[in-house]
Structure formats: C-alpha cells, structure tokens
Amino acid sequence: MTTIIRLIVIAVYLTPILGVLAALTYPYQASICNLGLVISTVEDDFPGTKGLFRAQDFVKKSKFQGYLLMLMLILLNILIYLAFYVISTDDDDQIGHITRFAFLLVATVLFCLTIFFNNIVSTLLYLELKSGYHLVHNVACTGS
Question: Which chain regions cross the lipid bilayer (predicted)?
Fold first, then answer.
C-alpha cells in the first residue's frame, strides 16, 4: 500500500514538470507536423512518414527558425482564443445578443484567418528551407 502512495506522490510531483516540457516542445512538434503535411502534399517522393522525417531534418537544420515562427503563431492563436472565450462566457446582459453574436462572428473569422495564415507560413517556410537545402547541397557537391 505504501508503494502505491509513493508512486502517486511521485506522479503528483512529476506532472507539472511534464506539463512544462510538453508546453516547451509543442511548437517544435507542431512545426514538424505542419511541414510534414506541406511536404507530403507538395512532394511526390515523400508521402506520409517520409515527409515527416524530411520535415524533421529541415527543422533541425533551420536552427530554431521553425520553432520560433510556430511559437509566434501559437501566441497569436492564444490571444484570439482568449478574446473568444471571454466574449462567449460573459454572463453580463449589458451587451446584447446581437453584439455578442457579432463579436463571436469576428472571432470565428479571425480563427479561420489564423489557420489559413498558419498554412501559408508553413508552406513558405518549407520553400525557404528547401531552397537553402538545395543551395547548401549544390555547394557541397561542386565544392565551390
């Protein structure tokens, strides 16, 4: 019985640490998944998991460019989500139903635009990394 209690205590202490690690690694994993989706769609030679492995190589070689870009996009999404949440859960009847509907409509359009913008940024990041990869690969092959 004491072993179970010790395991529970250890789990309670490890949960916040794992949460912080998950929050720090989420932008990295999200950038790999977004780039993997772009690579799988654009490149015929890299379907599915091959696209994810190529995206992982690109993100490793980009020196945190994809990580920081994804972090900024996530922070932008959080701001829009907070505005959406505050407006949708407001119990105050001072703003009317039509005003609340208009705010929620604007927040929904902003959500859609950020998702669209996220996909465009991922595509442009892939094209940037691909051109840099070919430039480095050609210089290494020719020696000039």
Answer: 7-28, 67-89, 101-127
